[in-house]
Amino acid sequence: MVLKNIKYAVKNIPKKRVTRLCPEVESPLSDRFRGLQILDKSKCIGCGICANTCPNNAIKIVKAPIAPGSSKQRWFPEIDIGHCLFCGLCIDQCPKGALSSGKEYTKGMVKWAHKDLLMTPEKLAREVDIKEGDEK
User: What domains, with CATH codes, occur in the chain?
Assistant: First the structure.
């Protein structure tokens, strides 16, 4: 039995590795993959349907500036991705198509503190760097 396993291991040494180191080597994604949400602030009307649809109550509607450096504020979704299922119901129910699904699943999402998992409207609209967060 031991010789059989050694023979199998030696036989498979020249083959290409099938495992990858995550997050250093990202996996290829399908077109239907649902990653971190993207918010288009110009389309969002702040209706809250996304928050009402979320099965985990991971979405809150908060006031945020309409553009970087602007003093005007409107209502936008804020997503706690620590509780998000990435089910896509919020994206499907958005009447204006303001929310969409991105391809990010490791960049900026692997954090130790729960407060860093809170995706503010600025982070969802990619107005701030997701890796650095709000400190920028």
Answer: 30-127 (3.30.70.3270)
